[in-house]
UniProtKB/TrEMBL annotation:
Residues 287-373 form the IspG C-terminal domain. Belongs to the IspG family. Its cofactor is [4Fe-4S] cluster. The lineage of its organism: Bacteria, Bacillati, Chloroflexota, Ktedonobacteria, Ktedonobacterales. SUPFAM superfamilies: Nitrite and sulphite reductase 4Fe-4S domain-like (SSF56014). GO terms for molecular function: 4 iron, 4 sulfur cluster binding; 4-hydroxy-3-methylbut-2-en-1-yl diphosphate synthase activity (ferredoxin); 4-hydroxy-3-methylbut-2-enyl-diphosphate synthase activity (flavodoxin); iron ion binding. Gene3D superfamilies: Dihydropteroate synthase-like, Sulfite Reductase Hemoprotein, domain 1. Converts 2C-methyl-D-erythritol 2,4-cyclodiphosphate (ME-2,4cPP) into 1-hydroxy-2-methyl-2-(E)-butenyl 4-diphosphate. This is 4-hydroxy-3-methylbut-2-en-1-yl diphosphate synthase (flavodoxin). Keywords: 4Fe-4S, Iron, Iron-sulfur, Isoprene biosynthesis, Metal-binding, Oxidoreductase. Its EC number is 1.17.7.3. [4Fe-4S] cluster binds at residues 290, 293, 325, 332. GO terms for biological process: isopentenyl diphosphate biosynthetic process, methylerythritol 4-phosphate pathway; terpenoid biosynthetic process. It comes from the Bacteria. It comes from Tengunoibacter tsumagoiensis.
Length: 411
């Protein structure tokens, strides 16, 4: 059961309540470089990003926000650290939401009140974005505890229990994060401003999970989920899926951002995969493919990756299977909307549970994408399957007789 939070609106996107869990990302361009920033946001929009955040480190970045907003189609969020004047300018520029960090907002409450009054006047939403790193920086007690924990981990205090010490440290930090968020919320509420959501991010999965759980028990403001500085594509995806998965499975979370050291466009498919896996959103392609093994006689890995790459812009819910052999291939392909079940240098194409034809391996890509396109609305079908078909070949020729991969074209 999803926890019922109050609903806020960020531009035309509802967050919280019974609204779908919204997927967002953040640009990596210099915001003042309007052309590059807008181009990146357009790429994000194409793969399903529903809200976008841009960094506003200096006034040069703040003053171009209206120009960026004019050229994009999704709500724009300004990410502010330290200087409240940047938030005030961003709000003046017409952004939809401002993110502030309680751990580093200069002049704390005084600055927050200025920002809240401006946001209220223009009906701009706000994220109170607590980050364990910046909370720790102002928390002397937490710093001391970390030192003690390190000493214990080094074996200096032999009777200590490192796991227990880490748990205590985590609980303490999570509590500090929640307390800070609630303090900022109470200041907002005193000004009758409630257009808020909250994040409690940490690069340590269990700290973030603990903080979100504690907050969720004590407040009904919507939650923006994230594991901050999660890492590169693989590590970051796994940590995000774990942390957010634990929370989402508990019904906690109203919007999310997967943070990766990768192009932001790569964050969006990961976010949707997390939500699809928990049956919380069904946008886009649910992909089923086998890892392949010593039975396989087609290049499943090559074909599956190429098919998946070409379907990233599809928003219509559809299930596609690419399977290596007769062990599980026909079953999974039958269950999918479109399936490929590999055989010896050829494959059977399934559509809506029925085998429709058998094609050689140099036509796998064309055959699968043609069937997928036939199930999509016209504007998406055009993206997937161009007029005249697909001439390119995915994968290599793989044969057990020879025990090796051979490029199909040299066969
Ligand atoms: S479907 Fe066939 S090729 Fe793929 S992993 Fe299973 S047994 Fe191996």
């Amino acid at each position: 059961m999803r926890k019922k939070t109050r609903q806020i609106h960020v531009g035309n996107v509802a967050i919280g309540g019974d609204a779908p869990i919204a997927v967002q990302s953040m640009t990596t361009t210099y915001t003042r470089d309007v052309a590059s920033t807008v181009a990146q946001i357009h790429r994000l929009e194409e793969v399903g990003c529903e809200l976008v955040r841009v960094a506003v480190p200096e006034m040069e970045d703040a003053v171009v926000l209206s120009e960026i907003k004019r050229q994009i189609h999704i709500p724009l969020i300004a990410d502010i650290h330290y200087n409240p004047l940047l938030a005030l300018e961003a709000i003046k520029q017409g952004i939809d939401k401002v993110r502030i960090n309680p751990g580093n907002l200069l002049q704390g409450r005084k600055s927050l009140e200025q920002i809240v009054l401006a946001a209220k006047e223009r009906d701009v939403a706000m994220r109170i974005g607590v980050n364990s790193g910046s909370i720790d920086a102002i928390d002397k007690v937490a710093q001391m505890q970390r030192v003690q924990v390190r000493l214990r981990d080094d074996g200096t205090l032999e009777r200590s229990d490192p796991a227990e010490a880490r748990r205590k440290e985590r609980d303490h930090l999570a509590e500090r994060m929640v307390t800070k968020a609630l303090e900022y919320i109470s200041w907002c509420e005193e000004l009758d401003y409630h257009n808020l959501d909250v994040s409690l991010k940490s690069s340590t999965v269990l700290t973030a999970v603990e903080a979100y759980r504690r907050f969720s028990e004590r407040s009904d403001y919507p939650l923006h989920l994230g594991i901050t500085e999660a890492g590169t594509l693989v590590a970051g995806s796994v940590k995000s899926a774990l942390g957010m998965g634990l929370l989402l499975a508990d019904g906690i979370g109203d919007t999310l951002r997967v943070s990766l050291s990768a192009e932001p466009e790569e964050e969006i498919p990961v976010a949707y995969e997390i939500l699809r896996s928990l049956e919380l959103r069904n946008r886009g392609v649910t992909f089923v493919s086998c890892p392949s093994c010593g039975r396989v006689e087609i290049d499943v890995v090559g074909v599956a990756n190429e098919v998946e790459k070409r379907l990233t812009k599809v928003q219509t819910p559809i299930q596609v299977a690419v399977m290596g052999c007769v062990v599980n291939g026909p079953g999974e392909s039958r269950d999918a909307d479109v399936g490929l079940a590999g055989g010896k240098g050829k494959g059977v194409i399934f559509r809506k549970g029925e085998p429709v034809r058998t094609v050689p391996e140099d036509q796998f890509l064309d055959a699968v994408l043609k069937e997928v396109a036939s199930l999509l609305p016209e504007h998406e079908a055009r993206l997937v399957y161009p007029e005249g078909g697909i001439k390119e070949i995915a994968g290599t020729h793989r044969t057990r007789d020879e025990g090796r991969n051979i490029p199909i074209l040299q066969k």
